[in-house]
Design brief:
The chain is an all-alpha fold and 303 residues long. The chain contains 14 helices and no strands. The protein has three domains: 65 residues, no CATH class; 58 residues, no CATH class; 142 residues, no CATH class.
């Protein structure tokens, strides 16, 4: 049996259901019903996505939005060790502690590069291998992993699914013809036949629209349809090179917007930084430098 993305969805759904079950049993969380229901419904969307009518999944999404909007989720108790115990254990392991985290991208790259399974399946396999390596290194059972995973995802809360919501919104914008509107606006100010101007418009447009949407996936469908294809690819650019660098330009926008809550607001919350925009301020110079580099790379490599 060949592994597919559907198997990764199945595994993700089962993990989320485990989080849900533990949340319902968490007596230290006064909002445990909201947490348990949210992660349970979210897990079912992965398990039932291809088996039930789209309308049913739509109702599930509305329920998820309601649970997040009405502040029905909160932090619980996770049986954590003390900070001193964690620091002592980390010091004893040294740099070996980073091995499970490094395994994930290495396995992902290997599967994507040397097999026909694809990067998403590789990411799922890399996560499983990283989990097994961490369990063996730390000599802990699977329940500890479930509790730690639940602790992290409860800290992120509803914003963990924000990227999927925004990607779906970008798809809807594209179907609604927003790309055509953007193309008309940009074509009126970009000199016709200028490759450099088209590249700048595509890269900067990806960054700006990502800042508005909060997600590069949401921006990609709209800006690539409106600017990337008609103004860059149609002038002879390699679509694979232009697409990759265009997406990376969108990530530059991700670094500069509070709309990307799961990237910029969540770290501030986890690190207990009072200024929620402190992470963004630190990232802006790097993002702008990367955006300029992307313009240069697309102009020199895509044509």
């Amino acid at each position: 049996m060949k592994l597919t993305v559907d198997h990764m969805y199945l595994l993700t759904g089962l993990v989320l259901l485990a989080f849900s079950a533990r949340s319902f049993l968490d007596g230290g969380n006064r909002k445990r019903l909201g947490n348990g229901l949210f992660w349970g419904v979210y897990g079912l969307t992965f398990l039932l996505g291809g088996l039930v009518p789209n309308r049913v999944i739509g109702f599930m999404v509305v329920l998820l939005a309601a649970l997040g909007s009405f502040d029905m989720m909160g932090r619980g108790s996770y049986g954590e060790t003390t900070r001193e115990e964690r620091m002592a254990r980390a010091a004893a392991m040294g740099n070996r502690i980073f091995l499970p985290a490094l395994i994930i991208p290495l396995v992902t790259f290997g599967v994507a590069k040397f097999t026909s399974l694809g990067a998403l399946v590789g990411l799922g396999l890399g996560t499983v291998v990283g989990f097994v390596a961490a369990a063996l290194m730390l000599r802990e059972g699977p329940l500890v992993s479930v509790e730690e995973g639940r602790r992290l995802i409860d800290a992120i809360s509803w914003s963990a699914i924000l990227s999927q919501f925004l990607a779906a919104l970008g798809f809807l914008f594209d179907k609604a013809g927003v790309g055509a509107v953007v193309a008309g606006m940009v074509s009126s100010v970009v000199p016709h036949g200028s490759r450099l101007a088209a590249v700048v418009a595509y890269c900067v447009g990806m960054a700006l629209f990502t800042m508005v949407m909060g997600n590069a996936f949401a921006a990609f469908a709209v800006i690539t349809t409106g600017i990337g294809i008609p103004m860059v690819v149609m002038q002879g650019a390699d679509p694979s090179v232009a697409g990759v660098i265009g997406m990376l330009s969108g990530y530059c926008g991700t670094l500069m917007t509070p709309m990307a809550a799961n990237f910029n607001v969540v770290p501030a919350a986890l690190l207990e930084i009072r200024d929620k925009n402190r992470v963004i301020v630190a990232q802006v110079p790097v993002a702008l430098a990367m955006l300029v580099a992307n313009v240069v790379l697309m102009y020199t490599l895509a044509f």
